[in-house]
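Comment thread on ticket #2218

A.B. wrote:
> Attaching the input chain for the structure job we discussed in standup.
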Amino acid sequence: MSESVPSASESDPKFPAKQDLIQLGRGLLMGGADIIPGVSGGTVALILGIYQRLITAISHCDSRLFKLLLQRKWSEAALHLDLRFVIPLGVGILTGVVSLASLMHYLLDYHLQLTLSLFFGLILASSVLVAQMVKRWSFSNIIALLAALLGIYLLVGESSVKAPEGNLYIFLCGMIAICAMILPGISGALILVLLGKYHDITGLLKTIPKQLLQGHIDWSGLLTVFVFVLGCLLGLILFSKVLRWLLHSYHNFTMAALCGLMIGSLRKIWPFKVDITVYANDQTAETVPFKHRIYENVWPGALDGLFWSSLLMIIGAALFVWGLDWLSKKYMTENRTDF
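C.D. wrote:
> Ran it. Output below, let me know if you need it in another format.
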């Protein structure tokens, strides 16, 4: 059953209560999904039965909340924001993201082809699901899909402009990527891949916790993460409302454009690449950071074990996404959820 926002009388004064630990676990699952391109945290929230409550909590970052805060009505503000739900869920999401970021960063560095095969299958399957969300394929919707597909295909090409540096761009990446988290079928991690900052962000999420535990503080990296999180928070408050309006007013057109973006982005994560980086002195692929390496897409050569492993990875990833979609549809059918 889908959860509703509890009243003050229903709130358990004990902390942490059993329900808080359950929300923490749900957050872990959502965070793990959010760090993988092609898997949407919104889909996981829908399957877990907390999607409506999550959207409601996000939408309550409004004028009434700020009015309650200015009046120092802390308990009413906490209830309005559903803070008892948001805090453990947020902690779980953050923990899941940080925990899996280290693994994803390692896989990109040392198992690039298989990792990209995983991403390719996830995003390919997700694009099919998004296409199915377009209820009527009118001429304008087809044009939106083709324009978005061609635009992003050219943008992410091997000769495309390098992603800008600086915290302002990181801030914008956070604002844009977080919007995908609340949409079933759209991945925030995919947005970071398209924006060219996925490897950078996962790298910081991997190293900063270790440095803090060792008593070393990378102030530059910490600032970058803070700016990214700040962008996420602002994007969640502002863009989520715009995105909901677009989906409500121009649902088919918006979903067609999103589908085009996802299909066109497959060029970026084509698994079969060759490293054409020019290494100087004693540099090797292991010593040069991933973001500074240059790769060129190629067609598969020999049908060796790595090729078949990559193919199986693509198929398995696609089946995983379609399985998640089947579970979410089963949940919606049983509970008649209207989101």
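A.B. wrote:
> Thanks. Noting for the ticket: Strands lie at 273-275, 295-297.
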